Amino acid sequence: MIPTANRIRKSSEYSKVFKTSTKFETPNFKIYITKSLDSTCKIGIIASGKIGGAVKRNEIKRRIKAILLPYLTQLPFNIVIKIKQIPTTSFTDLKKELEDVILKQDEKGSIKNSSYNNI
Fold it and tell me: How far apart are CA 82 and CA 44, in angstroms?
């Protein structure tokens, strides 16, 4: 579980990330990344009811949290991950997809090298 201090919970926090972020699109996600003002990593996950039932939505959110949990102390970013569809790939492929975008950010929130384009 992600600690409360590392969660984006308020709509004002989500809005701030959406307005000031660099956006990336992968086959399964839209990822919004912005530099954190206090150098702590905060994560928000959005899963619309249109993409599947509650069990599947919660499963993918748990997978995303498990992937990002080890990096909370290393990343100085606020990250919002919007799930576009329920991934049919394995956990390792999902991990590679997220890490390819998130871990290749420089200190300013610009991507260094990734196979995914920013929007």
Answer: 8
pLDDT reading at 29 higher than 60: yes
Name the E strands within the chain: 22-25, 29-35, 42-46, 77-83
| Alpha carbon distance 25, 52 (integer Å) | 20
Predicted TM-score (pTM) of the model is 0.86
Distance CA 63, CA 86 (A): 11
- The whole-number pLDDT of residue 114 equals 54
Model pLDDT for residues 33-58, shown as the tens digit of each residue: 999 888 899 999 999 999 889 999 99
Q: What share of the chain is helix, strand, coil (3-state, %, to 5)?
A: 40, 25, 40
Q: Is the Cα dihedral 38, 42, 44, 45 positive or negative? A: positive
